[in-house]
Write a structure and sequence with these properties.
heterodimer, A: alpha+beta, BirA Bifunctional Protein, domain 2, 16 strands, B: six-stranded mixed β-sheet, 11 strands
Chain lengths: ~375, ~210
């Protein structure tokens, strides 16, 4: 079907663009029902962005939920197949409590998941698609990449126990180095790494090359650093690394996530619009052998982002009355429409209707503009 | 333009002085009038005064790139923002207070009057104490005097108000001071300017 692109709302246009992008990389669309059994979410509450869920009882007495998340359903329906990676994307409405208003909101979310025998290539491809997704929305974006295993090992070297680590993660997420220093002081006895070094690492925010050399200077080594090097190296080679920043304040829930995690920002949008990473731990919890990586893009912010406010409700209004010949009226509507205008025929023009031009028809069907200086928007 | 939200009132004025000394001044601010927004186009910054408990909202939602909020507000509302610096001013404590001579009755649910529900809930959960929260918006000190609550959880600065009402601190919960916060997305796109401000303010911070 041919249609005028301008009738698409921005979130629809972006959703189509992303769908095309993911399809080209061989991802299949995953379609799910609006409801799922509540049990699925109740077991993995911490994985969800907000733990408030709309529930209702189905006709057979089962407790159901309006889906607050898509990933859990996808994981549940994925089978372990050695050497194979199941690649799906989705574009679904999810139902969550909005942070600001504390009321339930319908949020359009798009995203993709790679589940199966994940390797460094799949991680690269996922991060690449995250970058391309952001670029599809705006050229002025940044992707923050972090590595949870690296954070974890630095905190272990600093002598922190589980409780200390949990506290530290909260502080790292907020770049709160003054309180992190105070916390590290408590574990000074068992620490093999100075507070100076720890806070230097967690305040890092910069181009991968610079950050990696600081990490090496600070004596970081091992698989996590190697993974960061491989990933950012491949992104650079693909010519997509220019907007990548390594920043360890990206600390997704460690009960579910591990390894590479990332967050995307777009200039002028006050919060992260993309979030994702490796989540092998969720699969372990759901008794799967597979590993997984994926991300979600929150499209609800687009409504405000493009600022193309409507000036007019309609381009032209044709006023007619009971005596008007209906065929001539339809003819007149078509003539204006063929000029590319949006047209409505009304018997009276309400005060609030905003339009560019208003017309009347004479007995021969010719259109005459009505002077509506006062009414024009 | 870098937007900076400051808390209205004495603390905000102290903090503004720190910005001024650090080289981020805006002479308009000293004029006596009812304006809420002050710009220094040359330095490309813009200050505005908002209610102290609203600073976190302005910053979290990006209307302000950075702002100054009390740690009490940050603990209570847990906004998703960066906390970049302890400014070391506006120092006080969040404490549990009760009528002088109060003895805790662990066999009963403790009735706690407070403006800071979240902080109180977390504190008592951390020590495993069963409580009944009574949310009040002001004159918290009245609650134990009139028998509305057993204790209060509130900010204690000098302790004078407590003393005058025959109340005293039972337990300190946490230290409070003013913190410089930043919107997470703004930090990414205005990192150099924000970092420069943090570094300049570090020299002024009274920690």
């Amino acid at each position: 079907m041919n249609f005028n692109n301008t009738v698409l709302k921005d979130e629809e246009r972006i959703a189509f663009t992303l769908r095309e992008l993911y399809t080209r990389y061989g991802f299949l669309q995953y379609k799910m029902s609006k409801f799922e059994e509540y049990d699925l979410y109740a077991k993995n509450r911490d994985f969800l962005v907000s733990d408030n869920i709309i529930t209702f009882t189905d006709t057979n007495g089962r407790l159901m939920a309006l889906k607050p998340d898509v990933t859990l359903s996808i994981v549940r329906n994925t089978k372990d197949i050695d050497g194979y990676v199941n690649k799906v994307f989705y574009n679904e409405n999810v139902y969550r409590v909005s942070k600001g208003s504390h009321a339930f909101k319908e949020i359009m979310q798009t995203g993709l998941e790679c589940i199966g025998d994940i390797d460094d290539y799949n991680i690269f491809e996922t991060v690449l698609l995250a970058i391309k997704s952001l670029a599809a929305i705006s050229g002025d974006f940044i992707l923050n990449i972090s590595h949870l295993d690296l954070i974890s090992s630095v905190l272990e070297e600093a002598g922190l126990d589980e409780a200390g680590k949990r506290q530290a993660l909260r502080l790292i997420a907020n770049k709160n180095m003054h309180e992190l220093r105070a916390l590290l002081e408590k574990y000074k006895e068992s620490s093999k790494r100075s507070a100076e070094s720890v806070t230097r690492i967690f305040m890092l925010n910069g181009r991968p090359g610079e950050v990696i050399s600081v990490l090496e200077e600070e004596g970081c080594a091992g698989q996590a650093l190697e993974e960061l090097k491989v990933l950012t190296g491949m992104l650079n080679a693909a010519g997509e690394g220019s907007r990548v920043i390594i920043d360890f304040s990206v600390v997704n829930n460690m009960n579910y996530y591990n390894g590479i995690v990332f967050k995307g920002y777009i200039n002028r949008v006050p919060e992260a619009v993309l979030s994702g990473g490796r989540y092998d731990r969720l699969l372990e919890k759901m008794d799967k052998r597979s590993r997984a990586v994926g991300f979600a893009v929150y499209l609800d912010f687009l409504e405000r982002f493009f600022e193309n406010d409507l000036k007019y409700d309609v381009d032209a209004v044709i006023r007619y009355d009971d005596t008007t010949d209906r065929r001539m009226l339809f003819n007149a509507v078509q003539i204006l429409m063929n000029k590319g205008m949006t047209v409505t025929a009304e018997k009276s023009i309400p005060e609030k209707l905003r339009f560019k031009e208003a017309f009347e028809m004479d007995d021969l069907g010719a259109l005459r503009e009505i002077r509506t200086d006062i009414k024009k928007a | 333009m870098l937007n900076i939200a400051l808390p209205k009132g004495r603390l905000g004025e102290t903090v503004y002085d720190m910005f001024e000394k650090a080289g981020y001044d805006c002479s308009q601010i000293h004029e006596k009038n009812r304006r809420l927004i002050f710009e220094n186009t040359e330095k490309d910054i813009c200050f505005f005064w908002v209610k102290p408990s609203d600073v976190n909202i302005y910053v979290e939602r990006g209307a302000a790139d950075i702002g100054v909020a009390g740690k009490d507000i940050l603990l209570e509302y847990e906004p998703d923002v960066y906390e970049l610096l302890d400014l070391g001013v506006g120092k006080c404590i969040m404490a549990e207070a009760a009528r002088t001579g109060y003895v805790d009755q662990p066999q009963r649910t403790k009735r706690v009057a407070t403006k800071f529900e979240n902080i109180a809930r977390e504190y008592y959960a951390s020590i495993g104490r069963d409580i009944d929260i009574i949310h009040l918006n002001g004159s918290i000190e009245l609650a134990p005097i009139l028998g509305l609550s057993d204790v209060i959880v509130d900010i204690v600065e000098t302790g004078t108000t407590l003393k005058e009402n025959n109340l005293s601190v039972v337990e300190k919960i946490v230290d409070i001071s003013a913190r410089l916060i930043a919107n997470k997305a703004a930090y990414e796109f205005k990192k150099d300017r924000i970092t420069a401000i943090v570094n300049a303010l570090k020299g002024e911070a009274a920690v």
